[in-house]
Amino acid sequence: MLCFDEFFVSDIGDAMILAKLFEALLEQGITLVATSNIPIDELYKNGLQRQRFLPTIELLKRFTQEIHLSGLQDHRLHQSAHLSTELATGQRYFVDAFDSDSIEWPARFEQVFNAGPPSETAAWIDAPLLVHGRIIDTVKYNQRVAWFEFDALCDGPRSQLDYIEIASRFSTVILTKVPVLGGEPRSWIRARGTEDGAQPFETVAIETAAFETAAFNTGNRQLSYAVSDDPARRFISLIDELYDQGVELYIQAYVPMGELYSGGALSFEFRRTLSRLTQMQSLEY
């Protein structure tokens, strides 16, 4: 028996590996049990080369029984609806323009940063952090707390492995300058085959009216996503790792939590992130 918790597919490489894996496992009579927020038919929806994953979807439908729990209540949100006065004094999510005159969140973040034994907080560093051989800019960090700006963590070449190491090294993360993510999805054309090669690919945005004709005539791949969906995808991955490892997260954002993601192609995925962010504000977390 093989069990997956919160099973999903978001990458073409993962999709191809899973296709071979499931085919081999099911041929050997292995029992597969999985939980997922996504129905089988919608796995890897709108993903690159999704047609190559469709046989795996049919395989899962043939050899597994899909059971919809149809829960009407998000228990993470239910827990956070009963926040106590104690939590209110320990606020972790602040809405404020970074260049405002507010002193509430800077004072709170400095308090969080300097909490703990002097041996862990006295020797702080305001220099980049080395993670998997790559440099990540920080505001500052010490042995237990790392303070980053959003762009340093989510608007660049970052992977899930980077977030796993950060969550493993620090018990608290402070994240500032978090912008509104998502936006209106746009139609794009990506040259066919370039995503599998070593050379950089060229992606261009065109008007909707000309989109399908151009893609049909050139044989290029059709995509639809918002400009800031890539940072949003990394933010989702970051929250997943911090949540799974029980890392405390303090955020300064430009908008309330419920408005962090607007439109875009990741609305479904971001609902879980919002749920997790909400629970991370609770005393239970």
UniProtKB/TrEMBL annotation:
Transmembrane segments: none annotated. It comes from the Bacteria. Pfam families: AFG1_ATPase. One of its GO terms (molecular function) is ATP hydrolysis activity. Keywords: ATP-binding, Nucleotide-binding. The keyword Nucleotide-binding applies. InterPro entries: ATPase_AFG1-like, P-loop_NTPase. One of its GO terms (biological process) is cell division. One of its GO terms (cellular component) is cell division site. The keyword Repeat does not apply. PANTHER family: AFG1-LIKE ATPASE, ATPASE N2B. This is AFG1-family ATPase.
